[in-house]
Amino acid sequence: MKGELIPAVAKDVIESGRITVHNVIGTYDGGVERVLGVCDGAWKLGADVLAKDHGLISPKLKSDLIAAQSEITGIAGSMVAGVARGAGKATDFVADTAANAVGQFEEVFDSRVMRSLNRLGMPAAQVIRELGDRVAFLSQELNKLVAGKPEQAARPARSASRRKKPVLKAVA
């Protein structure tokens, strides 16, 4: 993260938090499904034992109990899935709100810094960037010119003081 701007880092942290919360919600949802499956299995096993070993319940009562338990776990599973969806939406809302707040903070901060720099007479970052780009472009052009004509590049440029003076002819 060294060298990155704080808003970019903040947005990365927010997105990482969003992903983490979605993973926790998914784990919770999957865990609840497994627990409900175990409950259904335990209920069926208990009903089997009561019906077969002890003859305490009739086969019809056994199937009705298992069906009722399946409906209860189905309802519980639907409720948990709904809660998971709601928690996911709430997570997205909070993460989006936080990311927007960071973006707004960045805009306000940038505008205040620009106003301060203008009051101090400092050039804007964009102007400096454009000047840097222009210098880089002109350096490349100069390199191309020098590379294309080596004999001219080797000769130093003539200054005004080194120009040839006209030769005066003697009059007889």
Descriptive overview:
The chain is an all-alpha fold and 172 residues long. The longest helix is centred in the middle third of the chain and has 62 residues, at 59-120. The protein folds into two domains: 6-122; 123-155. The protein is built from four helices and no strands. Helices cover 80% and strands 0% of the residues. Helix 1 runs antiparallel to helix 2.
Amino- and carboxy-terminal Cα gap: 86 Å
The number of E-state strands comes to 0
- Backbone shape: elongated
Average the pLDDT over all residues and give the rounded result. 82
Q: What's the helical proportion of residues?
A: over 70%
Listing every helix as H and every strand as E from the N terminus to the C terminus, the arrangement reads HHHH
Please work out how many helical segments DSSP would assign.
4
Largest sheet, strands/sense/barrel: none
Low-confidence runs (pLDDT<50, min 5 residues)?
A: none
Tell me the Rg in angstroms. 40 Å
Q: What count of domains describes the coordinates?
A: 2
Q: In percent, how much strand structure appears in the residues? A: under 5%
